[in-house]
Write a structure and sequence with these properties.
Layout lengths: L13 H9 L2 H9 L24 E3 L4 E4 L4 H6 L2 H7 L2 E6 L23 H5 L4 E4 L10 H17 L1 E5 L5 H15 L3 H11 L7 H15 L18 H11 L2 H6 L5 H15 L5 H26 L30 H6 L3 E2 L1 H5 L7 E2 L4 H4 L4 H14 L1 H34 L6 H16 L3 H6 L4 H13 L8 H7 L14 H18 L6 H13 L7
Parallel strand pairs: 2-5, 3-4, 3-5
Antiparallel strand pairs: 1-2, 6-7
């Protein structure tokens, strides 16, 4: 159950909003800002606590995002703002203004940019500059705000980010609130109230509040990973529809890599391949674990802030709220059962972290040697030298033990590879345990961004295979329709028949075939069965065993 917060109200009445839109900008500057003596153009009207960036009216909204009034060439030089950015690890600045606006406030606009500063001064100092122009007291389209949110999300991965409009209140607050909805999956009300607590008087107009709510509704319609009729947006979807939704959610390198491939297929195939080959967990595992830590820490900060300001009425005791936890992490199949896997991946958390995933207070990286103890290198060398010189037979025995361990590892890996192949072939009915676990993971992927972190810790090949085939089986239509099948099975197919397919179908099949290819190499006896299951999933046509 989510925290209950009141619906935010605009700072401006409808009459005031209409008046602001009707009055010429020059008059607005004189009446509301002070014209050349605008209070937002310098530090004169603000206490030091209101200057997170000295010399500029500014506030930290999150640990990584500072909202600020617009800087100027004069302020940048007078208060060494570039040096402040470097000291604070601010790597990007996002400007929400339109060129030429508020020309009658503060200093003259720079002729090369029509802003109060030249963006080049930041770029020359390796600080990225982005501009998403939004009219004063106005809004962007949903597509426009989505682009800005994705850039902000990417920039936060690179370092801290400064966001500004004119005063750093309305448009700046809208972008940050939408970013919180996008990243933490919190409600629009929670996002608006949180930003207003951290940056008073933010998100001023009714239209700006409505944009945050519209963005949250749009997000909700794109989150479904597995169709589920019990969910509000759990309708069935085709491959193309899924990829359209995915394009809304992903950004950066991940979005570029998975333009034509479903993320769920890519992740599951990568994990099954890694299990087969006995390789370390694929990069997706570490990425999702790190993302989970970031999301939970930020979400906790938001909820703690709302609670302290008495804006929330907690319906249940703290820690049981749906926005902060996933019920499956408290069940036998939950996160605590994955502690061993995390340790084997040389990534672990404190006992308080593992006792309740709802609150991440600290993260530690421990090697396995901390558990088993280590021998100083010098002692190790001396012991080996002694064995070699005085007891050569002992050394031979030692070597034999190493070979025995290698043989055991090879046997163990061979058994695991066989388990993966058997799971993908799906010859036997699935156990209730596997079905329940797969259902839990599907629910978490549908309802919580941290569901991906739970998925990448799963190591049961039966569960992973069930999720893979289930996703393909639940598509609204098969990936290969009748025409596609005829092209691929023609007596005179094209030189590379898969190239006749659309990119989405082709790249998805490539991903699946790559996984199957790795799985059947150590277990060729299962090749025919796995290919039969794959063809059935792609075409919805049963293939008789031969």
């Amino acid at each position: 159950m989510t925290l209950q917060v009141p619906v935010p109200r605009p700072s401006y009445s409808k009459a005031r909003e209409s008046l602001v839109k009707a009055i010429p900008p020059k008059i607005i500057c004189i009446l509301t800002c002070g014209g050349s003596d605008c209070r937002y153009e310098g530090p004169g009207c603000w206490s030091m606590s209101q200057q997170a960036i000295k010399g500029v009216f500014s506030s930290w909204v999150t640990d990584d995002i500072v909202a600020m009034a617009r800087p100027s060439t004069y302020l940048i030089k007078r208060y060494s703002i570039i040096e402040q950015f470097k000291q604070m690890n601010i790597k990007s600045i996002i400007n929400m203004q339109l060129p030429g606006e508020h020309a009658h406030c503060g200093p003259l606009l720079e002729p090369d940019s029509s802003f109060t500063y030249s963006p080049q001064i930041f770029m020359d100092n390796k600080i990225y500059f982005y501009n998403f122009g939004m009219s004063d007291f106005g809004v962007l389209s949903l597509d426009g705000i989505l682009d800005a949110v994705k850039v902000l999300a990417f920039s936060v991965q690179e370092g801290k980010v400064a966001v500004h409009c004119h005063a750093g209140l309305g448009r700046t607050g809208v972008l940050i609130a939408c970013y919180l909805v996008y990243t933490c999956r919190i409600s629009a009300s929670e996002a608006v109230h949180y930003v207003r607590i951290k940056r008073p008087r933010s998100i001023q107009t009714g239209a700006q509040i409505s944009l945050v709510f519209d963005f949250a509704r749009l997000m909700g319609s794109k989150l479904t990973q597995y169709s589920c009729l019990n969910m509000r947006y759990g309708f069935t979807f085709s491959l193309q529809q899924y990829l359209q939704h995915q394009a809304f959610l992903l950004h950066g390198e991940e979005a570029r890599t998975l333009t034509h491939t479903p993320k769920i297929i890519h992740v599951l195939c990568s994990m099954l391949t890694a299990l087969t080959q006995g390789e370390p967990n694929p990069v997706e595992v570490q990425r999702e674990l790190e993302k989970r830590v970031t999301i939970l820490a930020l979400r906790k900060a938001v909820m703690d802030t709302l609670t302290k300001r008495n804006l929330t009425a907690l319906m249940e005791r703290r820690g049981s709220c749906r926005t902060l936890s996933c019920k499956s992490w408290d069940e036998p199949f939950g996160f605590l059962e994955r502690k061993r896997e995390i340790l084997l991946n040389k990534r672990s958390y404190s006992e308080s972290d593992l006792s309740k995933i709802t609150i991440i207070e600290s993260a530690q990286c421990n090697g396995l040697n901390e558990k088993h103890g280590t021998i100083p290198p010098s002692e190790t060398v001396n012991k080996k030298t002694k064995c070699t010189m005085k007891k050569p037979q002992a050394f031979l025995k030692f070597s034999s033990n190493i070979e025995l361990q290698r043989d055991c590892h090879t046997t163990e890996q061979s058994s695991l590879s066989k388990s993966v192949a058997q799971a993908m072939a799906q010859q036997r009915p699935l156990s209730d345990t596997v079905l329940k676990r797969a259902e839990v993971l599907q629910d978490e992927l549908n309802s919580n961004e941290c569901g991906w972190a739970l998925l990448v810790l799963e190591e049961n090949p039966n569960v992973l295979s069930t999720l893979l085939w289930s996703w393909l089986d639940k598509l609204k239509e098969p990936i290969l329709n009748k025409d596609d099948t005829e092209k691929l099975t023609s007596p005179w197919p094209a030189q590379n028949a898969l190239n006749t397919l659309y990119k989405a179908e082709r790249h998805t099949i490539y991903c699946l075939l790559d996984c199957v290819g790795h799985v059947v190499v150590p277990c060729p006896q299962y090749e025919h069965l796995i290919l039969q299951r794959l063809i059935q999933a792609l075409t919805r046509v049963s293939v008789c065993a031969t």
